């Protein structure tokens, strides 16, 4: 199968940063892009998870929530009246 040209526009800064990384790996940018495309083909999707981290589920918040739930279950709660301020 003949090769085709793939073009993508990226910022000069991104290109420079990734060229340094590829160079450190002993490959050129074109080879890095070919590896990426081969991985997409092999995985039938992106070769990494695309997620937007929800801070609610961060490890520190989950520890805080676990501690608060344990406190409530142990009966260590303080009730407060709701006071409306005008």
What does this structure look like?
The protein is mainly α and about 90 residues long. The protein has one domain. The chain is about 50% helix and about 0% strand. It has helices at about 10-25, 30-45, 60-75. It is elongated, with a radius of gyration of 25 Å.
- C-alpha Rg (nearest Å): 25 Å
Q: State the low-pLDDT regions, or none.
A: none
**Percentage of helical residues?**
40-55%
Mean pLDDT: 92
Number of helices: 3
Give me the secondary-structure topology.
Layout: H1 12-25, H2 29-43, H3 59-73
Quick rundown:
The chain has helices at residues 12-25, 29-43, 59-73.
Keywords:
0% strand; elongated; 3 helices; single chain; mainly alpha; 51% helix; 86 residues
């Amino acid at each position: 199968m003949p090769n085709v040209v793939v073009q993508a526009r990226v910022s000069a800064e991104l290109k420079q940063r990734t060229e340094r990384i590829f160079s450190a790996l002993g490959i050129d940018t074109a080879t890095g892009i070919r590896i990426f495309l081969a991985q997409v083909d092999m995985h039938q999707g992106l070769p990494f998870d695309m997620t937007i981290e929800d801070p609610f589920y961060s490890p520190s918040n989950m520890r805080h929530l676990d501690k608060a739930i344990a406190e409530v279950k142990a009966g260590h709660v303080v009730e407060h009246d709701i006071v409306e301020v005008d």
